[in-house]
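User: Round two. Same drill as before: sequence, then structure, for each protein.

Assistant: Same drill it is. First protein:
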Amino acid sequence: MADDIIIEHRIATISEHRRIAEAVGWSGSFDWQTVPLSLEASVSGVVAVVGERVVGMGRLVGDGVKYFYIQDVAVLPEYQGQGVGKAIIDRLLLHVAQTAPSTAFVGLFSTEQATEVYASRGFTAGDMTGMFRLVEPT
């Protein structure tokens, strides 16, 4: 990773989150009205910064004790392939290691393109099958 890229321990702002999400093609992946509450409920987060500009982000969601999920890891296209995503993941995992009182479960969903990045950080499918379901509000 380039020396001018700094990893800061904080959750991306709403505008930073949206700018990066849109830059990586995730425009339709979020209900933008609920993003502020979702970000506020995060367990932890990190951003990658060059100068004054946030160029990458990632956050942890979950119970903050035993179960953590890595969420919204994204890096601006012009900074991809430079180790920024790996640095974000490493910092999130460090947070888990430093705060969980015992062995923690860290899960995630990955895009096809990011599978190798997560595998390089020790993530495997193991003996589980990832599943999800969308639930509409009543």
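Second protein:
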Amino acid sequence: MSRTPFDRREAASTIAVVVSSNEPLLFLSAQHEVIAASGSFCRAFEIDPATMPGRHLSEVGHGEWAMPRLASLLKATATGSAQIEAYEIDLERPNRKTRNLVLNACKLDDGDEYRVRLLLSVSDVTDVRADARLKDELVREKAVLLQEVQHRVANSLQIIASVLMQSARKVQSEEVRGHLHNAHHRVMSIAAVQKQLSTSPGGKVGISRYLTNLCDSLAASMIADPERLSISVMADDSSVTADVSVSLGLIVTELVINALKHAFPDQAAGKIEVGYHATGNDWTLSVKDDGIGMPTGDSAPKAGLGTGIVEALTKNLGSDLQLSEANPGTCVTVSYLGNVDHHEDIRPAA
């Protein structure tokens, strides 16, 4: 193959710019013959710079640049029908590690329509891609580990709940038995929360399924006669982050426990309705019963641990707590009207 004396025909300044570039560059003819190569290109791919001028691209190195797809793209770039932008290739060399490269090429216009020149830039992204793969693997491993931890925590909580229930059956004091029962109910609700989180992909929790599972768990552990008392959930198809779901679940747990303990004395029949609805960033959580309503005066129960938990969690979410008559019964509403999108991301207050 005859070689065109490019060093005589090309402007010395153009070649000098390419050769001295800190970026791996190739200055090519329309026939893919090398006019000039930057020193950084030769160093990166361990090629003697003296062997580059006049050599066809397919002959560079040990022939590893002889790629039909690359040749086709360069040809299309030379004719003006295409341009190589961020084209990724794998460069395979004998006894060398495969390199992941990103190529960019453009047609240079010097005013001579009969003389086409191409500038090809090469970026080695092998290490960047390897780091990205490593990070992806670490994220996946972390997610699997987190799910396993959550699963084990849920199992441990259920064991604790069983121990509490067994202890409640053995003690003679009604007061102590009541405290053990309350502890059992709270542990069971947390176990239900953990179980739901362990099966929620990407840290997002579907609120309807989440609250339904939680209330089913509360009903199973606290309602002896499902024909007399029931808990239902009416929620939209919103999803919230794991942090927010935990707070909402604990609020619902305390409000449902409170309703079951106080709204239906003397074995009265009734129902508890849990609702959740969101519009944009705004949302409303409600727990309503059709029991005896809010006691007043001396008959009103003193604020206890459950009330403190609900108030603290409501404040943590930046929401408002409202207690109202449901005629019959009582309705507790937790509502949020603001700029923070609880359905995308939230961090608990310090």
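Residues 10 and 112 are 12 Å apart (CA to CA).

User: Perfect.
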